[in-house]
Design a protein that fits this description.
- The protein is an alpha+beta fold.
- The chain has one domain: Double Stranded RNA Binding Domain (2-Layer Sandwich).
- It contains two helices and four strands.
- Strands 1-2-3-4 form a four-stranded antiparallel β-sheet, with helices on one face.
- The longest helix has 17 residues.
Length: 89
């Protein structure tokens, strides 16, 4: 799509999608991570969706799926450490 959406139109689209997700009993949250769009985060069993509605009219969806492996609380320190190691390099 090549038309540019106004901020109002973009928010209306995000709100309409969020309502559709809620009607389907899918948890969602509207967030603002990008300068050129609005992000809707959605959680369903075993997956997490990042839906970006962009001002140029396009929609980009990233689906992050769980491998189904559960870890105990000892993994928290390891995960934080791994992230810290990646951000300092």
């Amino acid at each position: 799509m090549s038309e540019t959406l106004s901020a109002s139109e973009l928010l209306q689209s995000a709100y309409a999608l969020a309502r559709r997700l809620e009607e389907a009993d899918i948890w969602n949250e509207i967030r603002f991570f990008r300068e050129d769009g609005v992000t809707i985060l959605a959680r369903v069993p075993g997956a997490y969706w990042e839906i970006d509605l962009l001002e140029d009219g396009t929609t980009v969806v990233e689906v992050l799926r769980s491998a189904g492996e559960l870890e105990d609380e000892t993994s928290i320190e390891r995960l934080i450490s791994e992230l810290s190691d990646k951000t300092t390099h």
